[in-house]
User: What shape does this take?
Amino acid sequence: MKENIKILVLGSNGQLGCELQFLSEVQEENVEFIFATRSDIDLTEIQALHSFVENVQPNIILNAAAYTAVDLAEKEQELANAINTLAPIEIAKICKEKGIKFVHISTDFVFDGLKSSPYLEQDPKNPLGVYGLSKSLGEDGIIQENPEALIIRTSWVFSGHGKNFFTTIVRLANEREELKIVDDQIGSPTWARDLAWFSFYAALSEASGLYHFTNEGVASWYDLAKAIVDAMGIECDVLPIPTKNYPTPAKRPSYSVLSKEKTRSSFGSSNNHWRDSVQALADELIMAEEDID
Ligand SMILES: NC(=O)c1ccc[n+]([C@@H]2O[C@H](COP(=O)([O-])OP(=O)(O)OC[C@H]3O[C@@H](n4cnc5c(N)ncnc54)[C@H](OP(=O)(O)O)[C@@H]3O)[C@@H](O)[C@H]2O)c1
Assistant: This one.
């Protein structure tokens, strides 16, 4: 590894961004992090990145920023496209021009879910909604402009920060006696902390191109919700329902498990099972609550 590596993180207040901030305080590599939020660099005004990069002189840019409102994207196509397609392509160009390594994060929603075995990096894409399409076009543009870029596809990201599936289930389970959660969409949950560590080491490696990273194991949203409620020790019944009983503006893939064979053979790393990561996060949140009390 080179010495004195500087990593500029975009989207520092998101789930992955927050976990990278946590990681930056405990990592023991010779790496300096610069964390940029939307108020430092708005991806809809990406030209501002040029002068920011001039000032900071990073070796690596890790883009954890994205438009992630999957349902709202159906109505905000232009904004989703600006943040998830146009901005990453522009970042890829800047990185290419200045010899900066670009690490970008993408999604399982680039696939249509019609496969019944884990999706490989090179499988044909066919996003079902605006969000997936905007991310998919972002991937294509990045690869075209900057083949040395590294794109990490992940899925079902959860954490203790902000509004996400984990924090929403905890809130609802505390408010209600019963939750009905879909059990016919299958994927792999991913703790943002595990993703942050993988992204960090992958960013420091020589790897380029597409890689998949999720926690081990597969789940339905029902499985994940039940595990969260159990791990948090909340008394609430979690009941399975079919997707047709919970219509959403954006269609989601019914199966979006990502194969991690390429990632395993390239990085040789073992990864946590999603159930262990759910328990670890729950333990951390319960302990933090006890500290406050
Ligand atoms: N969440 C998932 O389940 C999931 C699944 C698969 C892939 N991914 C991908 O994983 C990556 C990280 O996702 P995440 O869950 O950490 O996302 P997140 O929690 O929604 O965070 C996204 C971040 O992007 C920032 N952002 C949004 N619009 C911006 C703009 N115009 N300019 C600058 N920053 C902007 C947000 O800023 P504010 O804090 O100011 O709003 C936020 O900090 C994304 O690429 C996402 O597509 C996520």
